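Appendix B. Raw example, untouched.
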Amino acid sequence: MKIQKTYGVYLFAISLFWALWLQLTAGPSKPHPKTKGETWFLTTKETLALPEFKTIDTRSFPSRVKEKMPNSIVLSWEDLSQKETPNRGKLLETKILQKKISSLGIETSDLIIVLGDGKNGWGEEGRIVWSLREVGYTKSFWFDGDVSSLKEVVNQRKNKMVSQGETNQSFLLAEKESQIHTDITKDDITKQLNIGSYQILDTREPREFSGSTPYGEFRGGHIPGAKSFFYQNLFDDHGKIKTKEEVENSLTQIGITKSKPIIAYCTGGVRSAFVVGILRSYGYNAYNYSGSMWEWSSYKDLPLEK
């Protein structure tokens, strides 16, 4: 009886240890708590009330030719990313990135507004903001509007039609508190693929989710367990980002909640970075898999579903 009792205590201890280990390894390998008041994009009204900022224009070449954004810095997401397989889409090394960004006249203390093509683009503005934040430029935001709207903001500020000192800038203070790393690797995903401790969002087109490879993936399909959520679903009929309530309702319909971390991916981590910025702004603990399908599909031993 004594032996059986001792053996039972031993099994209980092992079970307890195993349960604790699963909890400790249940999220991304380096999770970071969401900063209170975290904001990744700004409306026209919020941008009007900002102190001095620098503008990055990440729109397509045709868009820039059609209507220029004066005094802006032209920068594409490719400028900050690796280009060779299997690392295509991943960020360059931090020191190289910081040197590149510094050469453009941008410092980590600067307030940065990024202009993109919005609904007509691929979420490049979100990718730029995500890239900047990953290497220490924490006061980076994208503008939720088009070039004409941002030019109007700049003109009003020049004409002193807005008081910049009387606004609530709590979201800026929040960005100063700490740097949040939201980049996830394939190893982070594979280690916990069978545990189900986080949710996976495929932000590509439905046809890509189902197996089509129009943008250079080596194999078709999606990561097992992923839910299809096309990034364009985050825009309203006017091309603006949907409200928090609208986004929450859309995600709830596909079974995505705030109870678990979310990992988003696409083809090369661009559309997914845009989605991550919105989700984190709305209170979700979201991360971006920058390697995305360019990397995942290049490894034949990594699973895909159709």
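End of appendix B.
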